[in-house]
Design brief:
By secondary structure, the protein is α+β, with helices and mostly antiparallel strands. It has helices at 2-10, 16-22, 29-105, 111-136, 216-224; strands spanning 138-141, 154-162, 171-176, 178-181, 186-188, 190-197. It is built from five helices and six strands, in the order ααααββββββα. The strands form two sheets. The chain has a three-stranded antiparallel beta sheet. A three-stranded mixed beta sheet has the order 2-6-3, with no helix packed on it. The model is unreliable at 1-5 and 209-225 (pLDDT under 50).
Length: 225
């Protein structure tokens, strides 16, 4: 029995790996060539797609750069155009003012000429406001007296005390025009004089007492008698 066991143990059973290694799997040359052609085709396709992506990105970046340059040119041109129009409008008003100065320098002072001078200044201010409206679409306004004060569109330049509660926080007088664009964008608020309530103005006055002693003069007179 011992010999039989030793003989059985000495017999080696072939493993799966040895059987697999004994079998040689050799690909046919035609198959290898087909695989190579397929791999080369895939590599060429990937390379072409990569080159196409690079060209697309370069073209896209070029278009973005072109749009950016055009935007800068348009913005700069628009700013220069606005500046030129504004400067020309101011020059026109300067010319008108210089004409008035030359005219009044050659005339003698009189009340009539003084009134004409004031009227010419009013015309200059009116012309500037009209210029803003016509050329830059800027509106101007002034509030009527005793209209409610609006802090969003008005600024208090000075105040006037009053004992009338109905006038409290209302406009006494418009001092400077307010300006805004046609779209409603506020450029400069209106400057106004506003009523403020002063209770001391409505306090009753004290009447002098009726029980007044005679003054010292009368006392002296009585003493003399």
């Amino acid at each position: 029995k011992a010999k039989t066991t030793e003989k059985a143990d000495s017999i080696e059973t072939p493993s799966f790996s040895d059987e697999f290694n004994d079998q040689e799997t050799i690909a046919e040359p035609s198959e290898v060539a087909a695989w190579g052609e397929t791999l080369q085709g895939l590599m060429e396709k990937l390379l072409n797609e990569f080159k196409g992506k690079l060209k697309y990105d370069a073209k896209k970046q070029e278009q973005i750069d072109q749009l950016y340059r055009e935007n800068l040119e348009f913005r700069d041109g628009l700013v220069e155009k606005c500046k030129k129009n504004l400067i020309l409008a101011i020059i026109e008003q300067i010319d008108d003012a210089e004409k008035q100065i030359t005219h009044f320098k050659s005339t003698e002072y009189s009340e009539a000429n003084f009134k004409k001078l004031l009227a010419s200044f009013e015309d200059i201010a009116l012309g500037l406001r009209d210029m803003l409206l016509e050329r830059f679409d800027v509106n101007s306004w002034q509030s009527e007296a005793e209209t409610p004060f609006n802090p969003k569109r008005q600024r208090t330049l000075r105040t006037t005390p009053t004992d009338d509660e109905a006038k409290f926080k209302t406009v006494r007088q418009s001092i400077r025009f307010g300006y805004e664009t046609a779209e409603g964008f506020l450029i400069r608020p209106e400057m106004v004089d506003v009523y403020v309530f002063d209770a001391s103005r409505s306090a009753p006055r004290e009447e002098p007492s009726q029980d007044v002693l005679p003054d010292s003069t009368n006392n002296n007179a009585f003493a003399a008698e």
